[in-house]
Amino acid sequence: MIGRLLRRGRAIAKERIGPVIARRQPTRTDLPLGTWGLEVGPTGTVWSDGVDLAALAAEHGTPLHVVRADRLDANASSAMAASESADVFASYKTNPVPAVLARLHGHGIGAEVISPYELWLAMRLGVPGERIIYNGPAKSPASIRTAVRHGALLINANSVSEARLIAAIAAEEQRVVNLGLRITVPGAWIAQFGVPDLGAAADAVRTALDDPWVALRGLHVHRGLTIRSAATMSAYVGAVLERAAELRARTGWSPAILDLGGSLACPTSSSLPTRQHRLNRALGSDLLPPDPADCLRIADAARLAAAQVGRDAAAAGLAPPRIVLEPGRALTGDTQFLLTSIIDINDGPLPHAIADAGINVAEPVTSEYHQLISVTSPGLPATIPYRLAGPICTPADVLYQHWRLPQLAPGHVLAIMDAGAYFVPFSTTFSFPKPAIVLQDGPEVTVLRTRETYEGMTSLDVHPSV
Question: Within this chain, do residues 306 and 383 fall inside the same structural domain, yes or no?
Fold first, then answer.
């Protein structure tokens, strides 16, 4: 009885008070198409540097990932503009498309890998050892041996036991390994990542310094939580330097390489603030885009870190270490978008638009702001609220709980922006094949990855019927 009364009370409160709260929330103002180099073309649809995206979707089918070569080149060039301040290594896990990675390497960017597969891929792409950093909590002994033989710039041990394993393999190979030690700082990822105890870290440092097959070169930290501002970056670097000083006081050792990890933000995408996300789900208030102008860029982060680390080293009477950044979403997030088509409209108080892209290929949308653009009708007012659901038979397959769009109908093409970070690696074959990926370089469109086939989905199965 009490439970029913409470539920009824909440329903009444939502019905009567909810609209008042919703009206007081700010209204979304979409970032202009030009933010991504898009425009309304002569056909009235959205064009990308001379390419009609509606026609592109019709030609290649949807879902379809589109990589913009010019934006990839611009981000890489911008990142390398501060190479005198920090060395840049691309996070492979963020966007492990070989052609994308190869293009980044062409600008001088190194490879930051976290698995045996990614190490293999970097080597297949011709990345020399001095341009590879091997991170991750689950390095296989065979892959460590490969990295030692390849002369990786750093193999960052995730734990004390892994540091011992790396050293043992180096001794077996009779080859000095470039070892780094991952530690933790307040406000950064801890859990299974890095050595949290300073005493244990100090013991690992002493052991490494006494090992003739180990060159202890680096100290590695990864914040994990996104860095959007100079203030956040400065506070993070300060925490790392404080931890490094504590380690130096115990061991007398200072790293030659200070690896600050990644976590730099994509300017046009961001995590959803908790309150805003809840109001969007419950009351239909708008999700608000981040301000790209307020986002710290890779080169600026490099210069800020270099200045801060330089001052710290000078105060301690030491030579400043070489700084490493491992950006992922800041490099590739806004260089790619995902085209999806509407399959059906399930009408109701809040109509459900069923798209051919769902959590199987666009999972990051469920927790991040990704602007949704009408490719088919960009000139029409976005006044109709929709819940955009995917093709999977589960209530969890909802990408946008409440997003205003022009009138939709089957065949309408939408673009999910900033799909260049974690969309591809998080994709699954949940009932549907994975999408194709194309590269747009001016008017030229090249297929980077073909759409998965049914035969491809079952190619590893051993059964007479498939």
Answer: no
SS (H, E, C) 181-216: EEECCCCCCCCCCCECCHHHHHHHHHHHHCCCCEEE
Domain end marker among 281, 301, 330:
330
Write down which residue in 330, 365, 398 finishes a domain.
330
Burial class (CB in 10 A: 0-12, 13-18, 19+), 54: buried
The CATH code of the domain that includes 252 is: 3.20.20.10
Note the pTM of the prediction, 2 decimals.
0.93
What is the number of structural domains in the chain?
A: 2
* 155 and 245 housed in the same domain: yes
> How wide is the angle at C-alpha 385 spanned by C-alphas 59 and 332, nearest 5°?
50
DSSP letter string, 324-378: EE--SHHHHGGGEEEEEEEEEEE-SSSPEEEES--HHHHGGGGTEE--EEESS-T
Across the chain, what does the average pLDDT equal?
A: 94
Domain shared by 292 and 345, yes or no: no
Q: Are 387 and 401 in contact (CB under 8 A)?
A: yes
- Amino acid symbol at 16: R
Task: Determine, yes or no, domain membership for 466.
Answer: no
- Indicate if 42 and 92 belong to the same structural domain: no
User: What domain range is 396 assigned to?
Assistant: 26-66+333-452
pLDDT tens track for 388-420: 999 999 999 999 999 999 999 999 999 999 999
Least Cα distance to 388 among 378, 371, 380 occurs for: 371
Lowest mean pLDDT among 145-149, 279-283, 304-308, 387-391: 279-283
pLDDT at 190: 84
Residues 320 and 233 in one domain: yes
Q: What tens digit of pLDDT does each residue of 59-78 get?
A: 999 999 999 999 999 999 99
What own/partner pairs with CB < 8 Å and gap ≥ 24 does 6-15 have? 14/282, 14/283
Statement to judge: residues 127 and 187 lie in one domain: yes
**What is the 8-class DSSP label of residue 25?**
S
pLDDT value at position 267? Answer: 98
Query: Is residue 464 domain-resident?
Result: no
Residues β-bridged to residue 113: 134
Is the Cβ–Cβ distance between 215 and 264 less than 8 Å? no
What integer pLDDT is reported at residue 133 of this predicted model? Answer: 98
